[in-house]
């Protein structure tokens, strides 16, 4: 997943049984009680074989109403309660159970009692009492939960004005990391994977897509049906519905988007996706998910991209920058192997997904675009890592790869550069240990084949690594002084090793030289003019601007010169470049370029571009200007973003009223502020009728 927000921390611990293996240091994983404190569920007591969703989407009321069927098998004796993760925004109507009959006797249907208990501020626990006829070890039973959900953390309803085309409303879900418990009751932990299917009823003219391997549409009934034939964790179940059209861009890929941006999206990706997939398969083995489609979402999408299997979600704002788009799509492709096929078993070890995916992404870009390009992008990201390190300090626990978090802290706040870049550096170190990058590619292929469709912990990866390279185990590679695997996982601070990036010198060298020129007491304008930023790549330009930003505040005369040289030129570049220049403007209180800040915020309404600028404006002497711009733009901001910006501007927490009753009004959005003067009952499942599913999301 491509992350946006600057995180704090979180995570997880509930009993988890994992396969028995020997561990370095005498620790046997099968004897360890791994836990996930972000889940209230008792997922260790049951095997989830499959679940089905049947939903009706009501855009007028901003509700999803329907039912869920879970097929479960008890795996622990004596368990009398099924506990699932849920959320206050999800209202349960009823729960019943189907127990298959034995010896020709009919199935038994039972109405079950339940209660919902508080858990944390990001969820609740749904406790379902199971009768003795159900809880027989290794005998399957079905639970049907009828419910209504509104706009909890996973569900984003967009009025037409907030979409790209501004003609029809749109809804999407975002499950990472513990948000999907507000979409459907579940074992909301990455340790549990299952197949799923879904039927979704929508108004005429609405197209529904899901992260599924097969789909179909019945025009007569206005029902979309989906099936995911490969096991996935709950957080990777995703849905989007709205005015969406598609264009094929390869033999197994198509782009989905609102009509007004579809042509642009296709032109930016062209035939590249199939090329990237082919490179990835050459490195890591077959792509197991069948389809790789992409849907571009409006600027309200809260992160940059999400690796939902078969259907990557990506923010349309990134279309401005071809290089950032390239990196983000390749990163999500890499998740097809690292994160989706093999998943971290707890959120405490998210680096197993993001660190490995970042390494895989850079192997793909090296093969496709050369080592210099990959090194440039890596330098840019590692610069950001060290910048965060300077802000947090060397002893901050967020810099651990294997962090331990307190109960109640939301894992959605886990995403940080250490997960990606420190994880990448550790994987790079493992590659260096084996001495041959091609041998390490072979190891990664074998790792995927070994653990495909399962969830793992770090010890699984490291044990398999040392087993694959027995000479390293014999030479105690895991215990090399100063680079011990244990230190990599559990020590705070920067990476213990960084890869050699000198191959990028042809691209990073000019950036460094220009930064040095601007750092001199007297700028050599004649030499500076020989550097033509219009010929630079986006990553070169943002690396240069980031390093200038690191030096802020700059002398006023330097800012005047910088503006004279670059402001007009940067106006014509993409948003990734412009936001960095505007942050320099704001942090240096350079008023002559303030109109550019206003123009940028009037145009861009995504979290990725607004929040950093508003934080900088309010952190300096320009808060009044920020408030003025906010009043001009707030009606075009998603309610969640509007609430965030109000908190930044006014340092207050606004109430967020969540409906839990079936006929209560939907969640209240934060009010649009004036400038200062000085449930319906769910329908029952259809009695009959099936639709043939295809291996691709289909149009209405």
UniProtKB/TrEMBL annotation:
A molecular function (GO) term: metalloaminopeptidase activity
Key words of the record: Aminopeptidase, Hydrolase, Metal-binding, Metalloprotease, Protease, Zinc
Signal peptide interval: none
Cofactor(s) the protein needs: Zn(2+)
CDD domains, sorted: M1_LTA4H (cd09599)
Matching InterPro entries: Aminopeptidase_N-like_N, Aminopeptidase_N-like_N_sf, ARM-type_fold, LTA4H_cat, M1_LTA-4_hydro/amino_C_sf, M1_LTA4H, Peptidase_M1, Peptidase_M1_C
Cofactor binding: number and manner: Binds 1 zinc ion per subunit.
Catalytic residues (UniProt): 332 (proton acceptor), 420 (proton donor)
Annotated Pro residues bias: 669-685
Residues in Peptidase M1 leukotriene A4 hydrolase/aminopeptidase C-terminal domain copies: 506-649
Region annotation Disordered: where it falls in the sequence: 669-700
Cited Pfam families: Leuk-A4-hydro_C, Peptidase_M1, Peptidase_M1_N
GO biological process, one term: proteolysis
SUPFAM superfamilies per record: ARM repeat (SSF48371), Leukotriene A4 hydrolase N-terminal domain (SSF63737), Metalloproteases ('zincins'), catalytic domain (SSF55486)
Binding site for Zn(2+): 331, 335, 354
Family: Belongs to the peptidase M1 family.
Protein name: Aminopeptidase RNPEPL1
Organism of origin: Clupea harengus (Atlantic herring)
Organism taxonomic ancestry: Eukaryota, Metazoa, Chordata, Craniata, Vertebrata
């Amino acid at each position: 997943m491509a992350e946006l927000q600057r995180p704090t921390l979180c995570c997880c611990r509930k009993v988890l049984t994992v396969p028995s293996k020997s561990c370095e240091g005498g620790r046997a994983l099968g004897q360890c009680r791994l836990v996930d404190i972000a889940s209230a569920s008792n997922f260790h007591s049951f095997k989830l074989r499959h679940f089905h969703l049947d939903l009706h989407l009501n855009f007028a009321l901003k509700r999803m109403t329907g039912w869920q069927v879970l097929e479960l098998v008890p795996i622990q004796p004596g368990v009398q309660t099924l506990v699932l993760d849920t959320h206050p925004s999800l209202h349960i109507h009823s729960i019943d159970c189907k127990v298959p009959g034995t010896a020709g006797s009919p199935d038994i249907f039972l109405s079950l009692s339940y209660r919902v208990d508080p858990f944390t501020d990001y969820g609740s626990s749904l406790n379902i009492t199971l009768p003795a006829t159900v809880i027989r070890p290794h005998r399957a039973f079905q639970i049907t939960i009828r419910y209504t959900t509104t706009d909890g953390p996973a569900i984003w309803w967009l009025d037409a004005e907030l979409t790209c085309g501004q003609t029809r409303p749109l809804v999407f879900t975002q499950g990472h990391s513990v948000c999907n418990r507000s979409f459907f009751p579940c074992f909301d932990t990455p340790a549990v994977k299952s197949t799923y299917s879904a039927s979704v009823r929508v108004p005429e003219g609405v197209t529904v897509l899901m992260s599924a391997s097969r789909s179909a549409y019945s025009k007569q009934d206005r029902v979309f049906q989906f099936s995911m034939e490969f096991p996935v964790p709950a957080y990777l179940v995703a849905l989007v519905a709205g005015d969406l059209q598609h264009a094929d861009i390869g033999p197994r890929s198509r782009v989905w988007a609102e009509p007004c941006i579809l042509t642009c999206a296709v032109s930016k990706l062209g035939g590249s996706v199939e090329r990237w997939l082919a490179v990835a398969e050459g490195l890591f083995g077959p792509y197991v998910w069948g389809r790789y489609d992409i849907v571009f979402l409006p600027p309200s999408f809260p992160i940059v991209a999400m690796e939902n299997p078969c259907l990557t979600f990506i923010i349309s704002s990134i279309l401005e920058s071809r290089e950032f788009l390239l990196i983000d799509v390749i990163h999500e492709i890499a998740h097809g192997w690292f994160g989706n096929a093999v998943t971290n078993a707890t959120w405490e070890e998210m680096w197993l997904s993001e660190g490995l995916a970042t390494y895989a992404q850079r192997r793909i870009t090296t093969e496709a675009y050369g080592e210099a390009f990959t090194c440039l992008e890596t330098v840019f990201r590692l610069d950001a890592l060290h910048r965060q390190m300077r802000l947090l300090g060397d002893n901050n626990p967020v810099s651990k790869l294997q962090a331990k978090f307190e109960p109640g802290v939301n894992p959605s706040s886990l995403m940080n550069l250490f997960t990606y870049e420190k994880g990448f550096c550790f994987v790079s170190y493992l590659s260096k240990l084996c001495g041959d990058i091609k041998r390490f590619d072979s190891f990664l292929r074998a790792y995927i084949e070994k653990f495909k469709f399962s969830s793992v912990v770090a010890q699984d990866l490291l044990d398999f690594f040392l087993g694959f390279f027995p000479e390293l185990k014999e030479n105690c590679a895991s215990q090399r002084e100063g680079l011990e695997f244990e230190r990599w996982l559990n020590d705070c601070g920067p990476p213990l090793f960084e890869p050699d990036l000198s191959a990028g010198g042809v691209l990073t060298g000019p950036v460094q030289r220009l930064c040095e020129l601007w750092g001199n007491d007297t700028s050599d304008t004649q030499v500076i003019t020989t550097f033509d930023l219009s010929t630079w790549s986006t990553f070169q330009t943002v690396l240069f601007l980031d390093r200038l930003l690191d030096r802020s505040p700059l002398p006023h005369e330097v800012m005047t010169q910088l503006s004279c040289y670059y402001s007009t030129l940067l106006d014509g570049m993409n948003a990734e470049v412009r936001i960095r220049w505007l942050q320099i403007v704001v942090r240096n209180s350079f008023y002559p370029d303030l109109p550019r800040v206003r123009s940028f915020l009037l145009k861009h309404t995504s979290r990725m571009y607004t929040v950093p600028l508003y934080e900088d404006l309010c952190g300096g002497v320009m808060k009044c200007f920020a408030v003025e711009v906010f009043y001009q733009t707030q009606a075009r901001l998603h309610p969640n973003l509007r609430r965030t910006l109000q908190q930044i501007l006014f340092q207050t927490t606004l109430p967020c009223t969540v409906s839990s009753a079936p006929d209560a009004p939907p969640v209240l959005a934060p009010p649009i502020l004036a400038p200062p003067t000085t449930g319906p009952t769910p329908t029952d499942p259809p009695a009959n009728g099936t639709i043939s599913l295809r291996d691709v999301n289909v149009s209405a």
